[in-house]
Automatic annotation (TrEMBL):
It is an enzyme of class 2 (transferase). Residues 5-178 form the DUF5931 domain. Keywords: 4Fe-4S, Cytoplasm, Iron, Iron-sulfur, Kinase, Membrane, Metal-binding, Transferase, Transmembrane, Transmembrane helix, Two-component regulatory system. It catalyses: ATP + protein L-histidine = ADP + protein N-phospho-L-histidine. This is Oxygen sensor histidine kinase NreB. The chain crosses the membrane at residues 21-39, 45-63, 75-94, 150-170. It is found in: Cytoplasm. It comes from Streptomyces lichenis.
Length: 416
């Protein structure tokens, strides 16, 4: 049995956490060595020694917390930032001359690690939140900050925000890459299943159709149904536009695929880059395709506002229902989609016996409003039109025209 494709997720931020771990260790060692090399200059070296001992223990004990985003919790980040701020404010107590000679603080550049943890964890906003109190503490510790101090504070503030922004971009890229890998794996699996289905199920359905037609009688009806299922299955495995649709069962006519007139029944996801709720009309019309219904559409997407596309699809479904009910189960139908700059035209044509003259007026008088409401009424609300042309013995043609601004016109009509 062939194995399913596995999607291996890549983490672009995990190397950042490893780098942060190394940075914290190295800067902790640097802060300790810096103190040991200049301890004779401290008026209260024991203050610096106690703080650096706490800093070393804290850094080593919290290495697991900076190994990944899941373990780097908000309480840890808050405590880490408090330790960094405490070290900055203790610097004048340990070395009175630190303010005069603009020397390094007790935690030195280790403080930047706390801010970077915020940046990697939450992005540039978290980085700005953490770097601001660090900047204030550095300025307050100096009393009268020099130009070098201001430059260093500004550098940490800008660099941390920039790194946070890069992390956010990297995460978005990671999600996009993961989605692309999933689509690729799904496509390969679909192709594999399509090959298997083509070699087995489709051939069996084709054989049933041929044998049933040859035998006649009830077997012919079984063959016809097998042929319809073969067409539907071929459309599915070929990766066409067909989407899951609802099927209404009719014991006398067989299974008829149709769109249910519900707000979200077959509404597909928004097309990429469409933020105004537009959908590809082809996606809503594709489920109508079958053994006796042919859909011809442009090679490119036919975007329409979602409500308008849904109403057009419902009108097409009503027209096909009329074909099935009045032209007979053996009648064929064709759906043609035309995409023009100002409007979209959908034509539904059949090869049935046509509609006798005066039949539509008579139907409306009898209370049968299928054409008047289900087709013409829908298009009228969209600011479009529906024209029906029928010649006895030559079939019926329904032409639906919907303008590109259908959504705006409908909104104005509802407000009025």
């Amino acid at each position: 049995m062939p194995k399913r494709e596995r999607v291996v997720r890549m983490s672009v931020e995990q190397p950042l956490w490893r780098a942060l771990t190394a940075y914290r260790l190295l800067t902790m060692v640097y802060a300790v060595l810096l103190f040991l090399s200049t301890r004779e200059k401290f008026e209260r070296p024991w203050v610096a020694a106690v703080f650096l001992a706490v800093l070393a223990v804290w850094t080593l004990a919290t290495l697991p917390q900076v190994s990944g985003a899941a373990r780097c919790t908000r309480p840890f980040l808050a405590a880490d930032l408090v330790i960094a701020l405490t070290g900055i404010m203790l610097t004048p107590l340990a070395d009175v001359h630190a303010q005069t000679f603009d020397g390094p603080t007790l935690p030195s550049i280790w403080t930047a690690g706390s801010v970077l943890a915020y940046a990697i964890k939450g992005g540039w906003r978290w980085a700005a939140f953490a770097s601001t109190p660090v900047a204030v503490a550095n300025i307050a510790e100096r009393g009268h900050p020099s130009q070098d101090t201001l430059h260093n504070v500004l550098l940490v503030w800008i660099a941390s925000i920039a790194i946070g922004y890069v992390v956010e971009v990297a995460r978005a890229s990671e999600r996009t890459l993961a989605r692309a890998l999933e689509i690729e794996a799904a496509t390969r699996e679909r192709e594999r299943l399509a090959r298997d289905i083509h070699d087995s199920v489709l051939q069996v359905l084709a054989m049933v159709q041929r044998r049933g037609t040859a035998l006649g009688g009830e077997a012919a009806e079984l063959g016809r149904m097998a042929g319809e299922q073969e067409v539907a299955l071929r459309t599915l495995v070929a990766g066409g536009l067909a989407r899951p649709s609802y099927v209404s069962e009719d014991s006398s006519q067989g299974a008829v695929v149709r769109v249910v007139d519900e707000p979200d029944a077959v509404l597909p996801a928004q097309a990429p880059g469409d933020g105004d709720g537009t959908v590809d009309l082809r996606l809503l019309l594709a489920p109508f395709a079958g053994a006796r219904v042919t859909v011809a559409e442009p090679g490119a997407a036919v975007p329409l506002p979602a409500p308008a596309a849904r109403e057009v699809a419902a009108a097409v479904g009503a027209a096909l229902d009329n074909v099935r009910l009045h032209a007979g189960a053996e009648a064929r139908a064709w759906i043609l989609v035309e995409d023009w700059p100002e409007e979209v035209i959908v034509t539904v044509r059949d090869d049935g016996p046509g509609i006798p003259e005066g039949r539509l007026v008579q139907a409306e008088g009898e209370g049968r409003m299928g054409v008047a409401l289900s087709i013409r009424g829908r298009l009228r609300e969209l600011g479009g039109s529906a024209e029906l042309v029928s010649v006895p013995g030559q079939g019926t043609e329904v032409e639906l025209r919907v303008p590109r601004a259908a959504k705006a016109r409908r909104g104005k009509a509802q407000q009025a």
